[in-house]
Amino acid sequence: MRIFLVEDDAMIGDSIRTALIRENYIVDWVRDGKMVETALSTEHFDVVLLDLGLPGKSGLEILRNLRMKKNSVPVIIVTARDAVDDRIRGLDAGADDYVIKPFDMNELGARIRSAMRRSSGRAEPDITIGGITLSPASREIWRDDEQIHLSGKEYAIVEALMLRPGNILSKAQLEERINGWGDEVESNALEVHIHSIRRKLGSEFIRNVRGVGYFIPRAKCTA
C-alpha cells in the first residue's frame, strides 16, 4: 500500500513516515502544499494523510480541488486543529476521516485500514483465491490455515492483483505501487519480488502474460 504524507513539520513528518515504513507501507512525503496536486494527478496513492496548515497552499484548498476533480482517493486529515468547526469544514470538504495531533500511531494505522475498506466498498474485507486469503484489515496473508510472512512490497503486489482477479496489471502499474520517490530500483526488482511470492504462495499463484503483465486467475465457482 502506497501512502502520500503531506506534512510540513519535519519532526512530525519523519516520525509518521518512519512508523509507517516499519509497518511495511510505501510512504512518499512532501512538505509544501504547492507540490501536492501535481503529485496526486500523476501518481497512484492508496491513502493521503493531509495536514491543513501547509506553506504554499492550505490543506483544505487542496482537498476541495481534489474532490472537484472527482479524485476519490481516501484522505485522512491529520492536524492540530481540534475545533468542531474545523472538523466540520474538513469532513464537508471531502475528507474520509479527521485525526487530531497528538495521536497514537496504532490508532492512525487502524484509521488508514478503515479508510481503505470503505474505499474498496467491501463489507467483508477478506478475499480468498486458490486457497490464499488476503485480509486488508490486518494486512495478513494466509495459505489455508498457515499465516505467510510477506515483505511490504510483496504484500503490495499480492494485494493489487487479488483486488482485481483476472485483470492483467503491467510491470509499470505494479512498480508504481511498490516504489516510493527516491527508491533505487533495479531493472529486475519486480521479477525478484514475484519469484519470492511464488515460492511462498505457489508457483502458479501469479501468472505472467509475456510482454503484457501479471495477473491472478479468478476464483473458480463451484456449483
| Span of the ends, CA to CA | 35 Å
Please write the CATH class name of the largest domain.
Alpha Beta
CA radius of gyration is: 18 Å
Principal-axis shape: elongated
Strand order of the largest sheet: 2-1-3-4-5
Number-wise, the strands total: 11
CATH architectural category of the largest domain: 3-Layer(aba) Sandwich
**What is the third-level CATH name, the topology of the largest domain?**
Rossmann fold
- Could you name the ranges where pLDDT drops below 50 across 5 or more consecutive residues? none
Instruction: Give me the secondary-structure category.
Output: alpha/beta
Biggest β-sheet description: 5 strands, parallel
Number of DSSP helices? 8
Let me know the average pLDDT.
86
Q: What order do the helices and strands follow? A: EHEHEHEHEHEEEEHHHEE
Number of domains: 2
Residue share in β-strands = 15-25%
CATH superfamily of the largest domain: Response regulator
Helix content: 25-40%
Subcellular location: Cytoplasm
Domain OmpR/PhoB-type: 124-218
Main location: cytoplasm
Modified residues (4-aspartylphosphate): 51
